[in-house]
Structures are given as structure tokens and as C-alpha cells.
Amino acid sequence: MADQAPAIELRGISKAFGPVQANKDISISVMPGTIHGIIGENGAGKSTLMSILYGFYKADAGEIFINGQKTDIPDSQAAIAAGIGMVFQHFKLVQNFTVLENIILGAEDGGLLKPSLAKARKTLLELEKEYELNADPDAVIEDIGVGKQQRVEILKALYRQAEILILDEPTGVLTPAEADQLFRILHRLKDEGKTIILITHKLREIMDATDTVSVMRRGEMTATVKTYETNPENLAELMVGRKVLLQIDKAPAKPGETVLDIENLHVVDQAGVERVKGISLNVRAGEIVGVAGVAGNGQSELMEVLGGMRPGTGSVQLKGQPLPLSGLGSDGQARRQQGIAHVPEDRQREGLIMDFYAWENVAFGYHHNPEYQRNRLLMDNAALRADTERKIEKFDVRPANGWLTAKNFSGGNQQKIVVAREIESEPELLLIGQPTRGVDVGAIEFIHRQIVALRDAGKAVLLVSVELDEILSLSDRIAVMFDGHIMGERLPGETDEKELGLLMAGMNGEAA
Amino acid sequence: MDFLTLIQILDSTVRLATPLLLACLAGLYSERAGIFDIGLEGKMLAAAFFSAAIAALTGNVWLGLLAGIVASMVLSGLHGLASITFRGNQLISGVAINFLASGMTVLIAQDWFRQGGRTPSLSGGARFSPITLPFAEAVEDVPVLGPIYSELISGHSILVYLAAASVPLTWWVLYRTRFGLRLRAVGEAPEAVDTAGVSVVGLRFAAVAICGVLCGIAGAYLSTALQAGFVKEMTAGRGFIALAALIFAKWRPWHAMWACLLFGFLQAVALRYQNIDLGGLVIPVQVMDALPYILTVVILAGFVGKAIPPRAGGEPYIKER
Question: Whole-model pTM above 0.90?
């Protein structure tokens, strides 16, 4: 093993986009038959580096060696020929093609499809057997789940005889169970001698799955270490460049009066399916209540009813005042006036208008507030922009430029814009869904601190997250939802992941 | 209505549907590759003029056809340059091509022929003449089948048969060949094609070139087969009707043929029955003439169910991480 040539060796790779140095003199070598993690915050240059390796960009300087051979990769065709396969974060699949058609696209054997399809069908069966990667060759992509779509991407690479597989943030769209399955597949591929590069910003995946890990920060490779020689705290520090608190430091809660009191809430969705089946829950002032659960068990619907995005039935009181759950006074605008701020789960669809400027997004939902009006007819955009500048500074949004459109910010900074808007409205109750989905480590810590600060200011927070770590570290009280019911409430100091996991799977802790 | 009248209307349907079908298939190649083409009309018009002009000058209709195809392909190339290479707006480029063709044809016609923006009437070898298929005269007297063969199927110009043959050919290319698979993919997900190591630009230009050839044939058919010479604005919105037929057919070749036959049939009926007398109520000729266009509006308004265009249609492809 020691005298074997590395599967991939990069020497002195640099790449600049205008004034931005995305990759600075990067050298790395990956041994064959290993899983090598590359970790870094959003915008650290991981994707750029991999795009260079896959022929999407041409490096300004540096050399690439594949199995000890110096290799030029001017385009994707060359990368494929060199045995490199890539699974992108956003899948590159033709939605209305079958699995088989997607697999042969670009790797057909001749002018006619029939022989190519027949050959691919046979090869696919062999690959399925070899790697336990089952996929129905005749299924149409848009009809299958994201986990299966990802498998098609892996099969695509294997069909092209990739020996080196690069996966860019592969678990971002997967459920925990699907992610587990993916890692089983990756280990299987590794056992067969394939080399895998795993790009992620999730420390846990790196610790669980990789043999070696390289850390990137601001375009530079800051360290390459053996995974068993490091720990999450150390990696986080290397990524962010300072000490990061993975476990949030917070004083014990001092709960006050009840702010939100939900009794027997039912929600039926557009398709007529009952998603929330009579739950009761309360949140007190100065308290964070975390709702745990596997996605799709009614948490989203709960948040949407409280946030005024869909109707429900039952009784909900805010500081003793009944909240209308349908009709007049139940829309998002009314909720904000009632003192409820909402950070929705899907920030790109519901939290922001991606083509609008940051300063416009900072006011949405609160644009009727008197401080933003110049007179009865006109808005005071100057006041709005000044307010944006203040929030950008306070919440450390980067780049600190209100004239950028929302889509030009990274996921973490987009989320900071939404969180800034909602927290700064000084609500009685903050609803916050998946606060750190797709957000990098540094920003996670910041957002968590803001949530705790709001609690310490005596406000109520209702948190929904599918990340158990997040629920456990933030919540003062935990409710677990399964199939529209609350399976139980626990205190974070008196429970653990195992017990919560059982509740999330619908098994009552006491009975088990 | 007697049987012979029906045959005659259907015969006329075939002739009128031919330019629609060729233009519709032209649009199909282009739009399946993700390039929306509102300039079918302009390309047909330019081809109609240049094929009539060259046929009139040389007396050879084949040279005319060639000139029509070249003219149409030049405009296609322009559209490709604007929308593929320079990633411009495909609608604006198409509209520009329509205006360019509309003005250019009349201007050049006036300069060359001095006949008020038209070409001289074509005759003899400068026109595509009907082809009589074998045995057409022999079976003429056979009841029912005889007239169908000799009147409806036989006796069209070669371009009509070419258009008919291009339907199964297009279907075969699209669904049975590597080129077709890639063409369909590039209109749905160009990023998938790109990462598979296939050139998006190359495929889209190929599609636009095929579109140019077919529009060229469609235009040449108008001025050298359906009619005998070019007149101002002779396409009369056929390019847009072909687009409507393409949407109606949901971008599928066989459906495109049926859609074009339907539009052709309406045009044939309008030509045949100038005034329809419905027991005292006379439907004026203008209503009949407007019928195909009214149907176009109805279809485009979405009364035919949801038509989902190729997903990447109209979007220039920009590589991203």
C-alpha cells in the first residue's frame, strides 16, 4: 500500500474568479481504496476544486495526476475517460427519462439505441448484484425518490467504469435512513477497491465514514489528517479558523407564563389527509420547546398553521387570547401583528424572494410597519436600507451588501437574513423550522446563539428540526411527533438519542 | 355532400397541411433541443421568396429549393448564434427574424423583379409538378378505393410525400437513435448532457440546422408547389399555426401530423365553402377564413389539456457548479 501511487494527486492547484481566489495552491493526494473527506464551510472552495477535477473549470495553475500519470482534464469527457465519476449535489438527471436512458446518455455504444439499452440493462443487473444498488431500469426519474435518484447517479458513474467517485454534499437531500444506506453503499464500493471523495460540511459524516480528511478554508487546504487521529471539535476549529462551540452554552431556562397554548389541534391537508391528529402543547415565556420527529410526521403542518400558512381546527391561545385558525385573522400578516414571527422550513421558497435584493427581503412581512413608510402612499426605502445595514452588521451577514439579490448569498447567510428579519421584529413567539438546514458550522453556532438570546430575553420559541443533535442542544423541553400525534415530552437532561429515536419511530418509551 | 367532394376536400387538406407539417417538425427539432423558435414564420417566408426567385431566374425548381433551404438555414444560424452562442432571449431573436424576413423579401423582390414585391409566375420546370403514382389511372374507376388512391394519395408534388415520410423518420430519429436521445435530453436537462461529456452547444446547433432545412422545404413548397410564385406575406401566419400544432401535439411527431391535418382540413373547408347557408343564416366567408386562426387561439389558450414544454426550453445554458 505504501509504495502504491495515489489514485488522485493534485499539485499546486489555483483558480480565481475575477478578484476572488477560489482555490489557492492546493495540493492533496488520495490513496486508492479509501474514502477521503473534504470538509469546509460553504464557499471554502470545495466545489470549485472538484469542478476542476471533473473538467468543468480549468485551473489557472497546478497539475493533476491520476494513478501517478499526469493528466489533463479540459472537459468532462476527459474526466470520465480518466475514470472519474461525479455525483453532484443537484442531480444531473433527465427527469422524464427512464433510469436506463439516463445511464446510457453520453455513453451509448453506437448510433442506434436498441443495442446500447440491451447492454446497459445487462450491466446494470450485474452492478446491482455486485454493490446491492437496486434500481428499476424502466422507472421514470421523476417518479422515484431522491434517494433512488442518487443511486442512479452512482450507477451512471459505475457504468462509465469510474474508479474514483466524487460525491458533493450527498446527504443534503436525504433522510437519515437514506443517508445510512448511502454510506453502506460507499463502504461496499471502497471494499471493491474504488476511491471515494466525499465533500460535506457535516462533521458527523466525516467522522463516521472517512479514512482521511482534508479541511478547506477560504480557498486554502488547511490540513489533511487521518480521521481516527482527529475529533469534531478539532475539525470545526480548522474549518472556521477559531474555536467553535458545537454544544451551545446556555443558562438554565427560567420559564414564565404560558405564551402559546395549543389544545386538540387538527390539520387536514389539501389532499384531505389528516396530518395533525389532535395535539396539545404549550410553550412558556423564556423557554425553547423543540419538536423532534422524522420529516413528514406533521411538524411542518403544525408550524404552518401557527404561522398562518394553512387552516386548522382546535383551540390555540397566544397569551390568553384565542388565535383564529381559519378565515379572518389567520393569515401570515395577521400572525405577525399578533406577535408571532416565523422562520419557515424552506427558506428559499417561503422565507425569501430569491431574485429580490437583501434589503427588500429584510422587510417582507413587516413592510407595512410605520417606520418604513414615508407617507400614506410611498415607502421609505432609505429607512429600509439603513435598517438592513444595521441587521447585516448585527447578524454578520456576508458579503455585507444589501444590494445583492438573495440568491447570491450562501445558504447560511440567506438563513441569517431570514433569522435577522424575524428575531428583530421582537416577537412574543418565534416559530423556527429547520434553522440550520444546509447551513455551515460557523453560521450554525451563530444562529443557535441568537435563538438562545431571544429565549433569555423572555420570549417563547417553538423549534422544529429533524436534526436530533440540534433538538437536544437547544431545547429546554422536547416533544416528539409521530404520525400526527405527540408521542411524549422529555427533558433534554433526562433523555438520550436512543429513547428519542424510539419515540420518533412510533414506539412509546415506557412500553418498550 | 357527395363522396367526390369529400375526397376533394381531403385532397386539399393534404396539400394545405404539408407546409404546416414541415414547419411543425422543424419546430419540433428545435424546441425538443430547448431552443424555442417563434421565427418559423420568417424562415418559411424567406425560403418561399428565395426559392421562387431562384426558380424564376434559373428555370430550375431544384435550384430554387436549394436556395430556399440556404436562406432558411442562414436565418436559423442567426437564431442559433443569438440564442445559443450569445445566450440571448430566444423570443426576441425569433421576432427579429420574422420582421427581417417580412421586410427583406418584399424589398429584394421589388429590386429584382419590379412587380410590386412579387416574383414572376412560375411555370414548367420552375415549379414542382404533381406526381402521378403508378396505376393511378388504371384504378381510377374502382369504387371508393379507386378515387382515394388516384385523387387523394396520388397526384401531389414530391414535397408532400417528403413531408409525409419525415413524420416516421422524425419519430425514429427521436426515439431510436443516439442523436435523438441526446436531443431530447438537451431540451430537458442540458446539465445532464454536459456532465455526461457531450457538447450542449453542438447538439443545439444541430437541432437548429435541421429546423432550418425543414423550414426551407416548407417555404419552397408554398411558392413553388402550392402556388406559382412568391407574393408578399404569403406564409399568412402558417409558422404560428405550426407552433400551435406543435403545442397541441405536445412535441410528438405523430401527433404533430394529426394536428397539422386538422388545421389543413379547416383551411380546406374554408377554401371550399366560401359562404355556408344554414337554413337562412349565412355564415360569411370571413368567418370561415378566420376559423383556422380561431382554433389556433383556442388551442393556445390551453383548452386541450396541459401541454408541458421541454423543461429547459427557452433557457440559455450556462454552466454552473
Answer: no
Asked if A110's CB is within 8 angstroms of B181's CB, the reply is no
Residue of A nearest to B203 (CA): A106
Say if the Cβ atoms of A95 and B189 lie within 8 Å: yes
CATH of span A8-240: 3.40.50.300
The DSSP-derived string for A161-192 is: T-SEEEEESTTTT--HHHHHHHHHHHHHHHHT
Number of domains in chain B: 1
Q: Which residues on chain B are in Cβ contact (under 8 Å) with A108? A: 178, 181
Give residue A296's Cα distance to chain centre: 16
Nearest beta carbon to residue B195 from set A76, A95, A114? A76
In chain A, what residues touch B184 (CB-CB under 8 Å)?
94, 97
Kindly state whether residue B242 falls inside one of the protein's structural domains: no
pLDDT attached to residue B320? 61
CA-based nearest residue in chain A for residue B192: A92
Contacts of A78 in chain B (CB under 8 A): 197
Give the structural domain span for B12.
Answer: 3-236
Are the C-beta atoms of B155 and B131 separated by less than 8 Å?
yes
Given this model, what pLDDT does residue A1 score? Answer: 46
For residue B187, give the chain A residue with the closest CA: A94
- pLDDT of the residue at B305: 67
Q: Identify the pLDDT of residue A132.
A: 77
Assign B61 to helix, strand or coil: helix
**Average of per-residue pLDDT across B204-221:** 97
> Residue B254 falls within a domain, yes or no?
no
Of residues B185, B311, B319, nearest to A105 (C-beta): B185
Evaluate if residue B28 carries a pLDDT over 60: yes
Of A54, A78, A92, which has the smallest distance from its Cβ to B192's Cβ?
A92
Cα three-residue angle B265-B271-B275, rounded to 5 degrees: 115
- DSSP three-state, residue B88: coil
ipTM: 0.88
* 3 state DSSP class of B182: helix
Residues of A in contact with B182 (CB under 8 A): 105-106
- CA-nearest of B3, B11, B30, B1 to B239 is B30
Q: Is the dihedral of CA A455, A460, A466, A468 positive or negative?
A: positive
Query: Among partner residues A92, A93, A101, which is closest to B181 by beta-carbon distance?
Result: A101
Give the homologous superfamily in CATH for domain A258-353+427-504: P-loop containing nucleotide triphosphate hydrolases (3.40.50.300)
The rounded distance, in Å, linking the Cα atoms of B35 and B14 is: 28
Domain boundaries, chain A: 8-240, 258-353+427-504
* Inter-chain touch B178–A111, beta carbons under 8 Å: yes
Question: Which of B171, B176, B181, B203 is the mutation pick for testing A, counting most A CBs within 10 A?
Answer: B181
**What is the mean pLDDT of each successive set of 10 residues along chain A, which is 512 residues long?**
79 86 90 93 82 89 92 91 91 94 93 93 89 86 87 93 92 76 92 93 87 91 91 86 76 91 92 90 95 87 93 92 89 90 89 91 87 89 92 89 86 90 93 86 88 94 89 93 92 85 74 40
Stretch B209-226: mean pLDDT: 96
Closest CA to B4 of B225, B266, B283, B272: B272
Q: Is the pLDDT of residue B321 over 60?
A: no
Task: Tell me the sheet residues that pair with A35.
Answer: A196
Fold match flag (A8-240 vs A258-353+427-504): yes
Q: Distance, in angstroms, between B180 CA and closest chain A CA? A: 9
What is the per-residue pLDDT for B1? 64
User: Does residue B256 lie in a domain region?
Assistant: no
pLDDT of residue B91: 94
Residue found under cell 383556422: B292
User: In B, which residues are within 8 Å of A102 by CB distance?
Assistant: 192
Within 13 Å, how many C-alpha atoms sit on residue A400's CB side?
A: 10
Is B166 among the domain residues? yes
The x, y and z cell numbers of residue A489, run together, are: 415530552
Q: For the residues B13-36, what does the mean pLDDT come to? A: 96
